[in-house]
Amino acid sequence: MTVKVTKDETPGGKPESVTGDLVLETKGVTLRFGGVTSLDSVELRMLRGEILAVIGPNGAGKTSLFNSLTGAYVPQEGKITFRSGKGGEHSLLGCKPHVVSLLGVARTFQNIRLFGALTALENVKIAAETRLKAGPVSIMLGLPRARKAERESDLKAHEMLSYVGLDSKMNELGGSLSYGDQRRLEIARALATDPEVLLLDEPAAGTNPTEKRELEELIRRINTERGVSVLLIEHDMRLVMSVADRVMVLNFGRKIAEGAPEQVQRDPAVVEAYLGVAPQEEPAAEGQE
Amino acid sequence: MSSGITKTASGGPASTARLRGVAWYQHPRWSRLTAMVAIAVVLTMVTGEQGTDRDIFFALREDFTGPLPWIWLGLCLLVWTVREFWSEPIRKVRRASVAKSDPPVAWVRGQWRGDRRIRQLVLAALVAVAAFAPMGLERYWHQVLVDQIAIYVLLAIGLNVVIGWAGMLDLGFVAFFAIGAYSAAFWTGALPVDPPFELNNFLVIPVAVLTCLIAGLILGAPTLRLRGDYLAIVTLGFHEIVYITAKNVEDFTGGARGVSGVEHFSIDMGFSYEWKLDPLPYYWLLLGFIVLLVFLFMRLEHSRVGRAWTAIREDQVAAAATGVNTVRFKLMAFAIGASTSGIAGVAYASKVGYFNPENFPLLASVLVLAYVIFGGMGSIPGVLFGAAFLVWLPEVLRDYVDPRDRYMYLGALLVIMMIYRPQGVWPSKRRQRELKMATEGTVDGDATAAPAGGKVS
Amino acid sequence: MSLSEFWDFLVLGVVLGSLYAVIAIGYTLVYGVLQLLNFAHSEVFMFGGYGGLIALTAWSPVTSPSGFQSVAYVAVGMCAGAALGGIAAYGLEKVAYRPLRRRHAPRLVFLITAIGASFFLYNLAGKLFGRNAAPMPTMYENKKLFSVFGADINITQLLILISAVVMMIGLDYVVNRTKLGSGIRAVAQDPEVASLMGVDIDKVVSRTFVIGGLLGGAAGFLFGTNQQVFYTMGFLPGITAFAAAVLGGIGNVRGAMVGGMLLGIVENLTVGFWGDGWRYVGAFAVLVLVLMFRPTGILGERVGRTA
Question: What pTM was computed for the model?
C-alpha cells in the first residue's frame, strides 16, 4: 500500500460550520509509541446528541484514539476537553480511566472484556455501583445506607439489562453468553454508569445480520431515548452509513476527512486510503477489513 | 510432589504415534516411565533418613542402600502400569461412581441454598460445637487451639481478603501481625519505651487496627499501582524491614531478646474478669473474634466491594473503564487484611505474654498463604477449614513424622495443589469459574494481568 | 567509617554485587520468556553450593594443594555446582511450571507454585545434607593478592569477580549472538508468533531455565567458597538478586548486571555505616524506592514484553 497522506483540511462541505454544543473536543492530540506515531495531531469535535462514526483502515489509530479519550493512554501532546451537560469543563488528558468513566464517558472494547465469571446482572451492577456511595464499613455493619445502595444498583442493573434485551439471561455467566449477547451486555454495563458520551469500539464485529439490525436499532434508541452522544468505531459501512450523523476518517493516525456519511463516502482521499489507489468509479469503501 | 510429569508428557494414544511414524521408544509412555523413576528417587529422599553436616553423604547412603528406594520404585511402577494399561476400565468405574454419588450432594446443596433459616441454624450449631467441643480435650490441645489454630485461622481470614478476593499476593502479611503484637506490648507498657498512657487490651485492638491500617496504606499506596508480581516482592521486602527493625532497635522493641510481660486481656466495667493462663477462656475470646470477622467479611463478599474486587481480579482494564477505582479497592483489601492481622497480633501478644522477633518469620507468611490456598482462595469456609486442618495435622503427626520435615511437605502440598486443584479443597464458586475460564482462555483469572507463559503449547 | 574502611566495604560490595548480578540473570531470563517470577531460583543457587560441596568432599582435597591442584579443585567444584544448579532448574521447570503453562494458569498460581517449590527444595536439602552450615573444603590458601586504595583483595574475591565477569560476557554472547539466544528473545517478545515461526517454545523455556540454573549454580558454589554452604543460604541472596533484577529492569539482562552490582555495593555500605544487623534493609529500601519512582527499573524492561 502506498498511501500518501496529504489532505489535512476537510474537503467538501463543512458540517463543522454547524456550531452546536460541543461535548467532546480534542485539539492536536498526538500519541507516540517509541518511534511510531499512532495519533498525529487529531482534531475531534463531537456535538452533543450526535452519533459520530470514526472509520479508517486497520491500524489507522481508531482504538488508540479511544484509549486516549478514556485515559488508557496518555498522549504526549494535545488537549482533550469534555463538556458535561451538568456544566463544567474537564480535561480528560491524563485522567485515570475510572475518573473518565465517573465524569460521564463510557466505553466498550473491541475484544469484548466482560467479567466472565460473574453473572450478567453482576457485571452491570459493578458499573451501576460506581455511582453509589457505600463504604466497606457501612456494608460490613449492614447499615441502611449500604442496603439502599444495594437495592438501587439492583434496580439500575435490571433496568439496563431489559433495555438491551438481556433480562431473561441475567443470571447467566458473562463468559457463557453468545457473542452478540456479550456485545449487548458490554453496552448495558457502559450504560449503567449513566454516560453522556458512549464510545463503542466495533460493536458489530462478529455479529450476524439479525444481531446487526438489533444493534443498529439499539444504538439509535440509546441516542434518541437516553440522549447519549455516541462515538462509534465500525468497519461495517452499512451500519455506519445508516446510523451515523457524521463520519470522521482516520488514516495513519491523521484525520483525512470529516463530514456527512454520503459526502465522506465520495471523498477521493478516503477511497484512496481504503483501496490504495484513486478509484475509477465505484466509490464504495466497504468490506476493507 | 511430582506426578505432574505424567500429565506433562504429551499424551496421545499409541495409534497416533504409529501414524506419525514415531519409533516405539519415542512413545510418551517411556518418558512417563522415566518420570516415575525420578519420582521414586525423590520420594526416597523425602521419606528417608535425616542427614548430618558431619557426613554430607550420610543420608544419601542410608537412603539408597536400604529397602526404601525399592519400595517406592515398586509403587511408582505399579502406578505407571495401571495408568498405561488399565486406565480405561478404572475410568469407567469412576464415572459410574461419580454419577451415583451426585444426587445426595445436590440435595444438600439445594436445601442449603433454598432456606435461609436452615442456613442460620446450621451455622449456629457449628459455632456451638466449636465453642463446647474443646471442653472435653486435654489441656495440651487447648494450648494448640489458642496459640496456633485460632491465631492462624484469624490470619488466614485476613489474608483471604487480600489474596482470595482482591487477587494480590501479599508475602509480608505477618509483618502486620508483628506490628499488632508490638502495638499491644507498647500500649500495655511492656516495651522499653513508655506509652503516653496505658490502655486496656481491648482498647488496644482498635489502636492496633489503626496502626496496621496506616502501615498498610503507607506500604500499599505506592506499590499497589505496580504489577501484581512486584507487589509480592515489595511486601516481602517490607516484612524483612519490619523484622530487622524489630531485631535491631533495642531501645524501642527490646531487640532480639524480645518483649515480656504483656498483660492479659481483662474487663473491668462494673464486674471484672481477667483472662489468665488458662487457654480455654482465650479460646472463646478468639472464637468470638473469628465469628465476628467472618460475619462481617461475608457481607463484604457479596456486596459492591466484593464484586469490585472480582472485577479487578478478572480484568483490571475493564474494571477501570467501568469506573471502578482499582487502586482504592486494592488498597481497601490490603488495609482490611492488615488490620485483621493486627487483631491477631494483639490477641497473640496478650495470650503468650512473651515474644520476640523470631515469632514473626517470613515462614509464617508462607504458612498462612498455604492454608488459604489449601482451603480454597476466596472461600471463607474453605479458609477456615484449611487453616484449622493444616495447623492441626502436624500436631497429630508429630510422633510419626519428623517435625523438621514439616515445611518440606508443606511446599510439596502447595505445588501439588496448584497443579491438580488450584481452587482448593472447598473452593469459592467465583474462583473456580475463573480458573476454569482461564484454562479455556476466556479470562485472565487474576489481577496480575496476562497469564504467564507462551499461550501456544 | 573512615575512608579506608569505605574502600574495604566497596570492594566487598563489588564482589558480592557480581554474584548478585549472576543470580539476577537467572531471574531475568526466566521472566523474559515466561513473565514469571521464579521464586525458586534461590534454591537453584543453594543447590549449586551443595553441588560444589559434594563434589569436593567426594574428591577430598589434600591439605596443602599445589597450584595445579587448586585450579582443578575450583574447576571441578564450579562445574559440579553449575551442573546441580542446572539439573534443579530443569526439574523445576518440568515438574512445577510446565503443567501450569499447559493449562494457561493465572499468574498467581505460578507464583504460589514457585513459593511452594522453593520451600520443598530447601527443606529437602536441609534434610539430606544436615541443617548446619558446612564450609567448602580448602581448595587453595586464601591469601591477600594486592590492594586497591588500601582495601585488600584476596584470591576468593578475585576468583568471584573474574568468574562472574566471564559468565556475564558468555551469557551476553549467548543471548545476543547464538541461535538459542534469538529463540529466547523471540519467545520473550511474543510466544505465539515465535511458535508460528517454528520456535519450539517448550525447548526454549526449558533451556532458558537450564542456562539460568547453570549460572545460579556456579554462583552458589562461589558464594559457598566465600562463606559457607547451608540449606537456607539461597533465601536472602535470592531475594536480593531478584530485587537487583527488578532494579535493573526485569527481563533486561544487562540491567540485571547493573542492578546486582549496585545492590551489592548498597548492602555493604549499609553494613559499613550502620552495622551488620541492618544488612538487608538498605537493599530493600532501594528496591521499594526504585519501584515507586521508576517501576520499569534503571535500564528499562527490554527482553520482555511491556505490559
Answer: 0.84
